[in-house]
């Protein structure tokens, strides 16, 4: 019997997780548990170590110090773990020369969705993100919000148990942002999927995340429900205040590489 059947592990468990790029310590000893079915937000300024953490959880970066388990499976079991995860990275992954449907079908093939199920699963994923009507248009004509929803469909087509979204709404206008979140919420309600999301938008974290971890300089500095974190700081505190208290107002730690990446993403989204 696999570990999956023998107990009821959390969706994610990180223990003593560290990662360095040369001399730069990007993740500096993280302990984190995300229960199954939760929408969990990872917040922090540029360069806090959020993406590096996500990349270790998704097995794109090897775990060299500490451990990561996904539904009880060690991240070292890369292929088994990847089958459980849908990942929407910050860098856009949709191909503008293909239609929406072709983009999702490509992911269905990549993720070994059985051939006879593919057509239906692609249609279901497109429907879940509200792109059925536009599915046969070339993706280069999509708005930024539609591209993000298309990428959600790409991540959903393999029916993952854990959906990981790195800045899913960066560069989008408020209507497109709430549209993306409405889809995420609906999918979660329909499937019970666990969602791990990074965002810079405190209002989104407050509204949509059941629990959040605030990262700064590679460490988790605060962990709890938005209401708990606010109450801990003091009456009338907002999540913005908590963020400022934790980061000491240093909202931009990441340097030119991170800012360029964020701008590039926002620009490509139009
Ligand atoms: N491939 C890399 N090579 C060298 N340094 C890197 C690399 N990736 C990340 N870093 C550095 O590690 C630190 C953490 O970066 P990371 O991208 O994880 O932060 P982040 O919290 O996701 O930031 P952002 O909100 O800007 O995406 C930063 O100082 C960053 O410059």
UniProtKB/TrEMBL annotation:
<feature type="domain" description="ABC transporter">
    <location>
        <begin position="12"/>
        <end position="242"/>
    </location>
</feature>
<keyword id="KW-0547">Nucleotide-binding</keyword>
<dbReference type="InterPro" id="IPR003593">
    <property type="entry name" value="AAA+_ATPase"/>
</dbReference>
<keyword id="KW-0046">Antibiotic resistance</keyword>
<dbReference type="InterPro" id="IPR003439">
    <property type="entry name" value="ABC_transporter-like_ATP-bd"/>
</dbReference>
<dbReference type="InterPro" id="IPR050763">
    <property type="entry name" value="ABC_transporter_ATP-binding"/>
</dbReference>
<dbReference type="InterPro" id="IPR017871">
    <property type="entry name" value="ABC_transporter-like_CS"/>
</dbReference>
<dbReference type="InterPro" id="IPR027417">
    <property type="entry name" value="P-loop_NTPase"/>
</dbReference>
<protein>
    <submittedName>
        <fullName>ATP-binding cassette domain-containing protein</fullName>
    </submittedName>
</protein>
<dbReference type="GO" id="GO:0046677">
    <property type="term" value="P:response to antibiotic"/>
</dbReference>
<dbReference type="Pfam" id="PF00005">
    <property type="entry name" value="ABC_tran"/>
</dbReference>
<dbReference type="GO" id="GO:0005524">
    <property type="term" value="F:ATP binding"/>
</dbReference>
<dbReference type="GO" id="GO:0016887">
    <property type="term" value="F:ATP hydrolysis activity"/>
</dbReference>
<keyword id="KW-0813">Transport</keyword>
<dbReference type="GO" id="GO:0005886">
    <property type="term" value="C:plasma membrane"/>
</dbReference>
<keyword id="KW-0067">ATP-binding</keyword>
């Amino acid at each position: 019997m696999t570990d999956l059947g023998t107990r009821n592990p959390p969706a994610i468990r990180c223990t003593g997780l560290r990662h360095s790029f040369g001399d730069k310590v990007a993740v500096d000893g993280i302990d984190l548990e995300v229960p199954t079915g939760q929408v969990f937000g990872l917040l922090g300024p540029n360069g806090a170590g959020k993406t590096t953490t996500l990349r270790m959880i998704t097995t794109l970066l090897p775990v060299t110090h500490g451990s990561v388990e996904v539904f009880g499976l060690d991240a070292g079991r890369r292929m088994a773990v990847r089958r459980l995860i849908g990942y929407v990275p910050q860098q856009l992954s949709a191909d503008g020369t293909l239609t929406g449907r072709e983009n999702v079908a490509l992911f269905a093939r990549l993720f070994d969705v059985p051939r006879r199920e593919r057509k239906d699963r692609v249609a279901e994923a497109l429907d879940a993100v509200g792109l059925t009507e536009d599915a046969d248009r070339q993706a280069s004509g999509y708005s930024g919000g539609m591209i993000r929803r298309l990428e959600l469909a790409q991540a959903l087509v393999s029916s993952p148990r854990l959906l990981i979204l790195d800045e899913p709404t960066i560069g989008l206008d408020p209507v497109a942002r709430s549209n993306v979140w409405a889809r995420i919420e609906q999918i979660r309600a329909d499937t019970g999927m666990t969602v791990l999301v990074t965002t810079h938008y405190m209002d989104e974290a407050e509204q949509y995340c059941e629990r959040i971890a605030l990262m700064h300089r590679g460490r988790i500095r605060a962990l709890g429900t938005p209401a708990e974190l606010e109450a801990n700081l003091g009456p009338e505190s907002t999540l913005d205040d908590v963020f400022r208290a934790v980061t000491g107002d240093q909202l931009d730690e990441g340097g030119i590489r991170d800012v360029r990446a964020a701008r590039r993403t926002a620009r490509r989204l139009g």
